[in-house]
């Protein structure tokens, strides 16, 4: 594979294939290989143009092709994102955590922390959090329970460059968002939340007191600060027999 001067590996100027076509293919390979997972936010057009060593017009032609193919989508004021492979209706709702929702409703819960440690995240998580592969992040694994039993299994991945020392926090009683905002002074502003349904694997089934293969609700979320930096990624599995997710929809 050749390296174009000022550009990325694979971009060649001495072949008949147009540069914008090569860029489109390069991005397709990144998406197909999982380097850019669903919901990954691309760099800005000027940054990408510089990275590829091309003009913004050439880059825009490549992005337009991928948008028309459905691989990318642009959100006004937010940027360009890799699309999901599933249909995702927009859901308008308050950005809150399960613990905050339970507290608002007067529901008593307990939290069991199964893991709170620094790890090198999987490549898709590193991409969504916009950290270099191998950079350590916090992995926080918890089970949330009510008097009925366990209702949710939560895996949270948190950028420790924005919250150094967070692995020392006792999350049996502390709220993750509360710590990020109260202790570290971070302003959580938005999140992209995706819902799905899955058959419970062995670990999920054991954690939620279910039979393996039982249906569970699955929630995936990327949380952003006011300056648009991603701060947290989470996977959440919910016991659908004990907890229902309700959304307030507003018609514009």
Automatic annotation (TrEMBL):
Keyword Transcription carried by entry: yes
Keyword annotations: DNA-binding, Transcription, Transcription regulation
InterPro entries from the UniProt entry: Bact_HTH_transcr_reg, Chorismate_lyase_/UTRA_dom_sf, Tscrpt_reg_HTH_GntR, UTRA, WH-like_DNA-bd_sf, WH_DNA-bd_sf
CDD domains the record matches: WHTH_GntR (cd07377)
Record bears the keyword Transcription: yes
HTH gntR-type domain boundaries: 17-85
Record PROSITE patterns: HTH_GNTR
PANTHER family: MANNOSYL-D-GLYCERATE TRANSPORT/METABOLISM SYSTEM REPRESSOR MNGR-RELATED, MANNOSYL-D-GLYCERATE TRANSPORT_METABOLISM SYSTEM REPRESSOR MNGR-RELATED
Name of the featured protein: GntR family transcriptional regulator
Gene source species: Streptomyces rhizosphaericola
């Amino acid at each position: 594979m050749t390296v174009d001067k000022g550009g990325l590996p694979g971009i060649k100027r001495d072949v008949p294939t147009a540069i914008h076509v090569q860029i489109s293919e390069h991005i397709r390979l990144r998406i197909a290989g999982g380097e850019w997972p669903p919901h990954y936010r691309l760099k800005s057009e000027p940054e990408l143009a510089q990275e590829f060593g091309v003009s913004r017009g050439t880059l825009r032609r490549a992005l337009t092709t991928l948008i028309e193919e459905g691989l990318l989508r642009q959100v006004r004021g937010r940027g360009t994102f890799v699309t999901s492979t599933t249909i995702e209706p927009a859901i308008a709702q308050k950005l809150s955590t399960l613990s905050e929702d339970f507290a608002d409703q007067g529901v008593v819960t307990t939290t069991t922390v199964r893991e709170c440690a620094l790890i090198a995240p999987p490549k898709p998580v590193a991409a969504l959090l916009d950290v270099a592969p191998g950079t350590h992040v916090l992995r926080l694994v918890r089970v949330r329970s009510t008097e009925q039993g366990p209702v949710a299994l939560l895996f949270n991945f948190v950028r420790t460059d924005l919250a150094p020392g967070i692995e020392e926090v006792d999350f049996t009683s502390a709220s993750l968002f509360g710590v990020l905002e109260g202790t570290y002074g971070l302003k959580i502003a938005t999140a992209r939340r995706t819902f799905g349904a899955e058959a419970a694997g062995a670990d999920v089934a054991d954690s939620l007191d279910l039979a393996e293969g039982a249906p569970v609700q699955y929630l995936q979320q990327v949380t952003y600060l006011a300056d648009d930096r991603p701060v947290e990624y989470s996977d959440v599995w919910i016991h659908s027999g004990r907890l229902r997710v309700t959304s307030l929809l507003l018609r514009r």
